[in-house]
Amino acid sequence: MSSAVVIQRLAPMRLLTRCAGVLASCRWPWIAQPLIRAFVYRHRIDLDEALHSNPGAYRSFNEFFVRALRPGVRPLAMAEWTSPADGRVSQLGGIRAGQMIQAKQRSYSVEQLLGDTALARQLEGGTFSTVYLSPRDYHRVHMPCEGRLLGMRHVPGTLLSVRPDIVEGVDGLLARNERVVCWFENPRIGVFAVVLVGAAIVGSIATAWHGVVAPPRRSKIRQWLYGEDDSVHRARNLLQGEEMGRFRLGSTVVVLMPGSAWDFAPQWEIGEHVLMGQAAATRP
Fold first, then answer.
1. Half-sphere exposure of 163 (CA within 13 A, CB side)
2. Which comes out higher in pLDDT, residue 97 or 280?
């Protein structure tokens, strides 16, 4: 076990996350601006892509971290499946016998990741890919294809780092961390899921239709269903490339696609950096 993994296991990650959240949400300029400018320098962030390129335009670190991009800097590729985020492809493969490969051929349960037996069965035999968002990446998550929102589930869990080296050292980490599971239906493709996995120092996870879903100190699974009936929340259709969620600090997105007949784009390989909207996969 590496020293980084040992530190993750021993450190009070939830307390550290709460403390970081207080600092990140502070709007006092004498706190927010030094944090923002130090972060930009440390991670060599290209603010020319941002809608507001001046660090002084952001009232808090959180506001800076989920900054919008200028229109046109992430063109949407002509592909059935596109990248949901900027980041590095950390894993991809098939969903077999209810399991997905995490790293170094270690597997973890799809049912545990989703918190839903029925949804896991629907996606059996499908394909998944995982994108790790480093602190320097753009941190809004977009739809990989068009879909009608069916449901959302907040699953509480640990808050371990999702850095690739940590993920490799902890069995089933992505299915243990706090996460927000969203599932959709596309009339041509079928039901698919997008899982936003929280991590150490991630203050919250939010979706475009709900706002903050995973604030601190939630211990019970919560679920929202969406449909045309008045007995459930109102359904909505999201277009490919439309914003669906956002993280505060680095994290991971897992996309579960129905069916195995997908050809991944040449740049969609483990270890490669991808941009939101780039082609990810098409049917042969």
1. 11
2. 280
Does one domain contain both 60 and 176?
no
Our measurement of the distance from residue 199's CA atom to the centroid of its chain's CA atoms, rounded to an integer in Å, reads: 10
CA 284 vs. chain centroid, Å, equals: 27
- pLDDT at 145 > cutoff 80: yes
What's the pLDDT tens digit per position in 61-105?
A: 888 888 999 999 999 999 999 999 999 999 899 999 898 876 556
Question: Half-sphere exposure of residue 42, counting CA atoms within 13 Å on the CB side?
Answer: 9
| Structural domains in the chain (count) | 2
Who contacts 113 (Cβ-Cβ below 8 Å, separation ≥6)? 100, 174, 175, 179, 181, 195, 254
Are both 190 and 268 inside the same structural domain?
yes
pLDDT tens per residue across span 156-182: 887 666 666 666 656 667 778 888 999
Residue range(s) defining the domain that contains residue 176:
81-282
Contact 134, 87 (CB under 8 A): yes
Residues 6+ apart with CB under 8 A from 182: 149, 151, 152, 193, 194, 195, 196, 207, 244, 245
* Residue 70 domain-assigned (yes or no): no
Catalytic residues: 86, 142, 251
Who's near 222: CB < 8 A, 6+ residues apart?
153, 154
